[in-house]
Amino acid sequence: MPVGQMIQPIKAPWIIFSSFLKKIYVQRGLIRNFVIRDLRSRYVGSFMGFFWSVIHPIVLVVSYTFVFAVVFKIRPTPLSGTTNFPLFLFCGILPWLFFSDTLVRSSTAIIDNSNLITKTLFPSEILPLSILISGLVNHAIGFGILLIMLLWIEGGVSVYILLVPVYLFFLMLFTLGLSWLVSSLNVFVRDVSQILSVILTFWFWFTPIFFTPDQIKYLKWLQILLRMNPLAYVVSGYRDCILGMRMPEINSLLILAASSLLIFIFGGLFFRHIKREFVDVL
Amino acid sequence: MPVIQVRNLSKLYRIYGKPWDKLREAVGLGQGATHKEFWALQDITFEMEAGSTLGVIGQNGSGKSTLLQILAGIMRQTRGDCFVAGKISALLELGSGFNPEFSGRENVFMNGAILGLDTNEMKERFDEIARFAEIGSFMEQPVKTYSSGMFMRLAFAVAVNVDPDILLVDEALAVGDLVFQHRCMHRMNQLRANGKTIVLVTHDLMAVTKFCDRALLLDSGRLLEDGKPDIVVQKYHALIFERERKYGEFGMEGAGDGDSTAPPVPKEDMPLVRSIPNIDHRFGNGEASVLGIELMDENGNPVRETFGGKRLLVRISVEFHQDVAQPIIGYTLRDRLGVDISACNTSYAERHLPPAGKGDLFTSDFWITLPHIAPGSYSLSPAAAKGSISKHDMCDWIDNALVFSVNSASLIYGVLKMPTEVRNYTSARSPEPTQHQ
């Protein structure tokens, strides 16, 4: 009489994922090396060094301000917390730039380091992570400029700004999850990085960077679209916290948390599953 | 206690027409996708004891590098098992992960991190690495300013100073200059003396016979031979000759020119030897066969034990079974490790043989003065071939047909005692002439 069935232990995705995270944690020394290398390779040998990371967002803000505020005379609604277009724009574009830069740079990270993957025993999952962390440094610099602008234009900082790290945290999870997905897919199909730049262009304009969700209440379909867009929550959240207009809605924060965690875990599991095929393809 | 155990290891590459198909299959949705299959490795089984050295040889595309990638854990096998116990350092490519924009020092630490060492462990090793690499003040310069020699020395220095239990090396040593190769070989010998396990993939057959305890011969993903390096190398030579033969027509390059130096002799008066004392391995196209080989002294007596400086005769007799326009007869002298010491043939010595007809007998006498070589056992491998030195087809080759030993009255360092004349000069005051009366 069979006492019990022999059941092959099927590991829960959560267990697989936490062991995946543990392995990444073990590699923190290597990650630090890669972050430093990434930061330095961007600025080493260039005359103005870190200055460039500041220039890029400023040039964007100035150009968009010229087109929207000067040519088309658009003013942000007072409901958004400021009437200053550059400040309004900067709040929204800052998290977006962090997101899109990380994603674009991650998409080719595995291919660019193919000799490491085919010739050494290398934990490839740390490549997108290193790019994310080095992007965080840029993000912090941009945030510093934003604070200076804020003090100068508005003359004060809201207490809600302390909530920005919460949004940043979920933005990082979301970005890293997608980066794992995109970087691993790009190993197999090189068009992925091209497709990505097309998608990102759409994504940019369909994210409330130049407008607030309140302004487009009459466009039902766009509202639905924004509700499905985690970046919309991040951008609105950043703006609301920095400009101190209102306490972020707990509902939207929960949706952001759930969706970014989901993407983070899915991206990680996908990467873990598919990375063993990298050597065969690279 | 084996540190590497490989059982029925196979690796299948699937080559897909469309990249999406590979992705679909990797995700687990790829049923029925059309692909070509290519077995890079098939049913490889071997074990390695701790502290042994293994050479892996074979032609390009035979699966050597794939095997190393699987041993290193970089690639996953399709079937079979592969257990590796201990810390591995895989030197599959010199300087993987070196960034040309960064200084040598930074790259050393980076490379160490990739190989699994933290900053403190690397600090301990840094001086040793710098000493081995011998690039001096360039250590602080960007790697892009290095010569290729400096680059390789630095990369090799890092890899061997990681202090692995198992070192996997793929062709990495073949790229450097001679000084570099010597230094690497020296370092590898040190590692071996320290009881490290080493797997060496190489085309340098000399290195395999000299350095390894054992060798594997791979061909088209299969393990053809596993055994003593000299035996495996011979097998590899045979394989290559076989391939060359099948490759196609052999030109009549050099036919007719050069003086044929074989006076016709009536068959009954031919000096012939008809015994082959030993056959380790024999191959060839069968158009001729070696009838016999003998080593003799000046009086025609067989010699099995001799001294350096002796004048000796190597006599080889060959029978041709087909017409051969440009026959060559020769031999190779090897030491007991299978290292080629010297070789000679009728073409090399520019004593070309006349065209041979079916049924003709040829005998070539090679008169040699044996140099003062290290005492030990040596072997002669006779061969008959057709063509020219650069392009020939092996008719018959016998490995180690005749073994003899060389003794020496005096001590001989290294391989041989070179004929040397010594002259001394001194600036010291000449001592008081002693009375020799």
Q: How would you summarize this macromolecular structure in one to three sentences?
A:
Chain A is 72% helix and 0% strand.
Provide an overview of this structure.
- The complex is a heterodimer of chains A (about 280) and B (about 425).
- By secondary structure, chain A is mainly alpha-helical.
- Chain A has helices at about 15-25, 30-45, 50-70, 85-105, 110, 115-120, 125-155, 165-190, 190-205, 220-225, 230-245, 250-275, 280.
- Chain B has about 425 residues and is of the alpha+beta class.
- Helices cover about 20% and strands about 35% of the residues of chain B.
- In chain B, strand 8 and strand 9 (about 220-225) form a beta hairpin.
- In chain B, helix 3 (about 105-115) packs across helix 4, helix 4 (about 120-135) crosses helix 5 and helix 5 runs parallel beside helix 6 (about 180-195).
- Chain B is globular and about 75 Å long.
- The termini of chain B are far apart.
- The model of chain B is unreliable at about 250-260 (pLDDT under 50).
Kindly list the characteristics that best describe this protein.
A: 282 residues; mainly alpha; globular; B: alpha+beta; Rossmann fold; 2 domains; seven-stranded mixed beta sheet; six-stranded mixed beta sheet
Shape field of chain B:
globular
Q: Tell me the fraction of residues in β-strands of chain A, as a range.
A: under 5%
| Shape by Cα distribution of chain A | globular
Question: How many β-strands of chain B, per DSSP?
Answer: 21
Secondary-structure element sequence of chain A?
A: HHHHHHHHHHHHH
Low-pLDDT stretches of chain A: 1-8
Poorly predicted segments of chain B: 249-259
Task: Compute the number of helices of chain A.
Answer: 13
CATH topology of the largest domain in chain B: Rossmann fold
Average pLDDT figure of chain B: 82
Computed over alpha carbons, the radius of gyration of chain B is: 27 Å
Total tally of structural domains of chain B: 2
Count of distinct strands of chain A = 0
> What's the Cα radius of gyration of chain A?
21 Å
User: How many strands, which pairing sense, and closed or not: the largest β-sheet of chain B?
Assistant: 7 strands, mixed
